[in-house]
Amino acid sequence: xxxxxxxxxxxxxxxxxxxxxxxxxxxxxxxxxxxxxxxxxxxxxxxxxxxxxxxxxxxxxxxxxxxxxxxxxxxxxxxxxxxxxxxxxxxxxxxxxxxxxxxxxxxxxxxxxxxxxxxxxxxxxxxxxxxxxxxxxxxxxxxxxxxxxxxxxxxxxxxxxxxxxxxxxxxxxxxxxxxxxxxxxxxxxxxxxxxxxxxxxxxxxxxxxxxxxxxxxxxxxxxxxxxxxxxxxxxxxxxxxxxxxxxxxxxxxxxxxxxxxxxxxxxxxxxxxxxxxxxxxxxxxxxxxxxxxxxxxxxxxxxxxxxxxxxxxxxxxxxxxxxxxxxxxxxxxxxxxxxxxxxxxxxxxxxxxxxxxxxxxxxxxxxxxxxxxxxxxxxxxxxxxxxxxxxxxxxxxxxxxxxxxxxxxxxxxxxxxxxxxxxxxxxxxxxxxxxxxxxxxxxxxxxxxxxxxxxxxxxxxxxxxxxxxxxxxxxxxxxxxxxxxxxxxxxxxxxxxxxxxxxxxxxxxxxxxxxxxxxxxxxxxxxxxxxxxxxxxxxxxxxxxxxxxxxxxxxxxxxxxxxxxxxxxxxxxxxxxxxxxxxxxxxxxxxxxxxxxxxxxxxxxxxxxxxxxxxxxxxxxxxxxxxxxxxxxxxxxxxxxxxxxxxxxxxxxxxxxxxxxxxxxxxxxxxxxxxxxxxxxxxxxxxxxxxxxxxxxxxxxxxxxxxxxxxxxxxxxxxxxxxxxxxxxxxxxxxxxxxxxxxx
Length: 744
Fold this sequence. Notes:
Elements: E1 18-19, E2 25-27, E3 58-70, E4 73-84, E5 90-97, E6 104-111, E7 114-115, E8 118-121, H1 123-137, E9 150-153, E10 156-158, E11 163-173, E12 175-177, E13 180-185, E14 197-207, E15 212-216, E16 223-228, E17 231-241, E18 247-253, E19 258-265, E20 273-281, E21 294-300, H2 308-321, E22 329-335, E23 339-341, E24 347-348, H3 351-362, H4 372-381, E25 390-396, H5 407-417, E26 423-429, H6 435-444, E27 448-452, H7 458-469, E28 472-483, E29 494-498, E30 503-506, E31 511-517, E32 521-531, E33 534-544, H8 555-575, H9 579-592, H10 612-623, H11 631-645, E34 657-662, E35 667-677, E36 680-685, E37 688-691, H12 696-700, E38 703-704, H13 710-719, H14 724-727, E39 732-737, E40 740-743
Parallel strand pairs: 1-13, 3-14, 21-22, 21-25, 25-26, 26-27, 37-39, 38-40
Antiparallel strand pairs: 2-5, 3-4, 4-11, 5-9, 5-10, 6-7, 6-11, 8-9, 12-13, 13-18, 14-17, 15-18, 16-17, 19-20, 20-31, 22-23, 22-24, 28-30, 28-32, 29-31, 32-33, 34-35, 35-36, 36-37, 39-40
Helix pairs in contact: 2-3, 2-7, 4-5, 5-6, 8-9, 8-11, 9-10
């Protein structure tokens, strides 16, 4: 068995970003072979039968990453299965492009249990190999990693139809910046496969000597479990997926009731920057009793709830009643044309009241009209004690048909009765709800709207909601940012911060705040709120960058843009259109590739993305769809709006392709003419992918660069490694770097 090279780099690289996995590529580097990396084929219509198979191609069958990380030191094992889908044997090397330089140690590489020779190449030697491969095969794919190092093995055979499983094990020190430790999984290499990857799994076990607070991925929706205050287990799984972006994970540690960390991004020093703040409460110990709360569950029992829906609603009620805590005050209200309470006032939760409430729930049957106004009045009039947080979970599947039926008046009545800032969580079940009413209600009563589709389980949604709000950790949370050198008379240092209203933090919860800042420099972030029944305020240091020299934190701008688009749609929905908001909606959608039902025209290759007046008219016409308060279209629009307002990850799609929810069909539609790559959006017009920021003047002055020429590769040297991902786009491309357009 051949021994693999052990790579140990200097301690001066301790702050290098974590290379947390080794998703690599199989490359036939023999000079007599012309081998392009495989890509999944996207057919515009029905796939031809039989589908032609190239002589050399492979698919990635499975990708499994397991990692343990203690105090910035990561131990990683990665298993990746390749299948030769071509018609002849391949002689390949496993090549892993290092996204950054890294302090790698104790590295081993095996193919089906047999160890192979390998070596780490520095950026200079790697560039020479990259350039040679790209020129030889006329394949731009590896441009994405130009300017970085490489891990490369000796050649090994993969017969036609055969499967090979490669395994890497190594350890590495992760970087720490802005108080956050960063873990990077370069998974985007797995997009080079002839078919979607059957299974992708990532598991990260975090261990620390001090409590772990914020755990956040800007790229993927992860599941986070916390066995204790010093442990966290992060997982991500997907099936039949083509990974389009690297997996990133950020986490911080510290003592205190609340932890906050701030990252910033300012690509243009003459414009406002962007910041993101992560806020998490202290992890509750198993022996600790959560703060007491008031909660009323209000359930629709009108005739339209009959059958499966009422049974699911009753199951959800039973779940909540079995998960309240001693000391909580609660009630259950069921309504149709009449309103009936379990008890006329709030009850203290104990075993006796739980059993009695379960009996009340068992006796709920569907029938009658829908008195939404009466049900809300009954619930809110019982909540008068402001010494503890109060919540109403309000569920309906229909329109107000009894009592007060006017949408605006129902909201006014609820707002007037809400004397103690009760949080109302509206849950719309099925397409027959008045979704605009539920959104108005949640907005005016400090809550949130949740929508359950006809084929989805009510009980699942209610249990997820209650698991989140069941244990308040800090209520009425507010945030302020003070920047050195910014006086009170200069106004707020930040603007357009989302979420915009005061909010609550719950045990196991994490708040993602995004906003913009006017002036860079050292800053103090103050987080205040109520813990138990005491007011608390905590200060945290932050550094708002003057100018970002790379795109490491470009996701902050994209995430802010998503939240801002959601807020614009919400404001138009509830208050009506105006020119300024419509123009901003179109501008943000164009720049960031955030497609909505109102800006889907950007996916039309014949549209002119620079024609402001025409695009305003198109968006204004589409925004009239918000006048639809009920039905499938209203439901889909407001659910999509809420997803944008609560977005926690920047926009991405398969292969970087953008998508949006089509309101009239309530389904997600992926488009092939809008692509998000790095911090940029590209629109396909004719045969070209065009940078969405390209002006008419820049287009006229565009510099033509021949693909694979010296000038083409030198653009990476001139504009840095971030430019390489744009040069890797296939086809004809026009991209803007530092106000200069290049076409290739």
